[in-house]
């Protein structure tokens, strides 16, 4: 084991790697509950998505450890799952089976581009300001979903949205947000999942005490059950191959692309696992595993899998090899038998997590040059259009097109990478068809 994972070469030990793997798992464990919660809004069975989520987390992380020997763990991406549910299924009316087919196809595209090296070319074609704006826009989108799910924000015929009524649910949400934020500030491992557990128990106590007219949550009838294969291989590939699905597949590809590449670059710097030019070590192998994670996500029944920035927590604990990722992946497996228990977690317990993930994703906005209007305008459009249109697709389309049109108007056509013109072509094509 020491030789396989090159422990001595990377100045680490089995004990350090085990501790790092556990830390990463605690930071990522919230996805076991949050991902099925989001995808169930698309009509997918909670238990089936939970099983798929656990498998994608486990198999992808283990593959990263064994194949790439890197301490990066993977799971269905936050933001991508929101796009899947609210843009594709609920927004465009696409059946979730067809949406899974789109996830699978985007994975195949990922694998092809990863093998040829074209994935790097596409990344370089997208201006940094647009990447930052889109990441933050997705973060605002997730926060909006969380606030809406607990009635903190509600629809208003006069102002479109407004503050919802103060009640037991919104008060619990605020308590959860404060408690979870405080635990994160104190750097308590697993703060997000601990917050979910605490607020779930508080919601149960309030419900059992009869302090609310309608129980927020009820005790599950059982704790354990066999894994549910309800969404296994239920994808509709033929439906995803139609002309109307070009932009959805394209958007899935780009959202996953930005997320994974940004995560790889960031955490590789933290780990010191970079080449002399700053390129992440073994990036080719890492990207291939990431692409494979997206592909099996479509097959198993969940939105795209991607590398998680929470891997940095394990790296800070000293994890430097694939053994960290293998340990993290193994820890996910027992939870495939706990779907009845995990299904009892109410939305008021997961909403604070969505808001805090939004905070994390908004941090890159500090890197945008807001004094340069050529960069600031399209970045701002990406930031606000995603939550305001309730569609990641629209944020991608209009931020890209506006950026290109501004450059062309200023006579700076050469500043636009040729690949971005290709992307713009797909965007224009998509506007010829109804989108969410």
What does this structure look like?
With 436 residues, the protein is mostly helical. It has one domain (2-144, 223-346, 357-431). Helices cover 65% and strands 3% of the residues. It has helices spanning 2-5, 14-28, 31-39, 46-68, 80-89, 96-116, 118-125, 128-149, 168-185, 191-209, 237-240, 246-271, 283-300, 311-316, 322-332, 339-342, 347-362, 373-389, 392-409, 418-431; strands at residues 74-76, 153-156, 160-163, 305-307. Strands 1-4 form a two-stranded antiparallel ribbon. A two-stranded antiparallel ribbon has the order 2-3. Strand 2 (153-156) and strand 3 (160-163) form a beta hairpin. The model has no long low-confidence stretch (mean pLDDT 87).
Topology summary:
Layout: H1 2-5, H2 14-28, H3 31-39, H4 46-68, E1 74-76, H5 80-89, H6 96-116, H7 118-125, H8 128-149, E2 153-156, E3 160-163, H9 168-185, H10 191-209, H11 237-240, H12 246-271, H13 283-300, E4 305-307, H14 311-316, H15 322-332, H16 339-342, H17 347-362, H18 373-389, H19 392-409, H20 418-431
Antiparallel strand pairs: 1-4, 2-3
């Amino acid at each position: 084991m020491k030789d396989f994972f090159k422990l001595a070469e990377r100045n680490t030990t089995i004990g350090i790697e085990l501790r790092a793997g556990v830390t990463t798992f605690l930071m990522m464990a919230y996805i076991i509950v949050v991902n099925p919660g989001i995808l169930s809004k698309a009509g997918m069975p909670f238990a089936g998505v939970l099983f798929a989520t656990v498998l994608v987390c486990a198999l992808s992380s283990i593959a990263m450890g064994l194949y790439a020997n890197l301490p990066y763990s993977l799971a269905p991406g936050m933001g991508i799952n929101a796009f899947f549910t609210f843009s594709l299924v609920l927004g465009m009316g696409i059946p979730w089976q067809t949406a899974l087919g789109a996830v699978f196809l985007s994975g195949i595209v990922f694998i092809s581009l990863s093998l040829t090296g074209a994935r790097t070319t596409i990344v370089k074609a997208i201006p940094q300001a647009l990447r930052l704006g889109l990441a933050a826009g997705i973060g605002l989108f997730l926060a909006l979903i969380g606030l809406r799910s607990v009635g903190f924000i509600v629809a208003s015929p006069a102002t479109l949205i407004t503050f919802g009524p103060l009640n037991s649910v919104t008060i619990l949400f605020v308590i959860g947000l404060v408690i979870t934020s405080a635990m994160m500030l104190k750097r308590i491992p697993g703060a997000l999942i601990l917050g979910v557990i605490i607020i779930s128990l508080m919601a149960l106590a309030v419900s059992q005490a009869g302090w609310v007219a309608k129980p927020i949550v009820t005790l599950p009838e059982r704790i354990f059950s066999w894994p549910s294969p309800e969404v296994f291989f239920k994808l509709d590939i033929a439906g995803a191959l139609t002309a109307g699905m070009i932009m959805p597949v394209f958007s899935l590809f780009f959202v996953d692309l930005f997320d994974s590449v940004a995560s790889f670059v960031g955490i590789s710097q933290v780990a010191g696992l970079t080449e002399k030019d700053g390129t992440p070590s073994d990036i080719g192998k890492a990207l291939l595993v990431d692409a494979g994670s997206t592909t099996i996500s479509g097959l198993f029944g969940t939105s795209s899998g991607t590398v998680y920035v929470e891997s940095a927590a394990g790296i800070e604990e000293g994890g430097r090899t694939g053994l960290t990722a293998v340990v993290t992946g193994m820890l996910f497996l027992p939870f495939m038998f706990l779907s009845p228990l995990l299904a009892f977690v109410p939305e008021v317990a997961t909403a604070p997590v969505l808001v805090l993930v939004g905070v994390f994703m908004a941090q890159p906005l500090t890197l945008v040059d807001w004094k340069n209007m050529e960069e600031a305008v399209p970045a701002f459009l990406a930031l606000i259009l995603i939550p305001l249109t309730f569609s990641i697709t629209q944020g991608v389309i209009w931020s890209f097109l506006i950026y290109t049109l501004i450059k062309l108007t200023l006579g700076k056509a050469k500043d636009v990478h040729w690949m971005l013109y290709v992307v713009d072509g797909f965007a224009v094509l998509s506007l010829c068809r109804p989108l969410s």
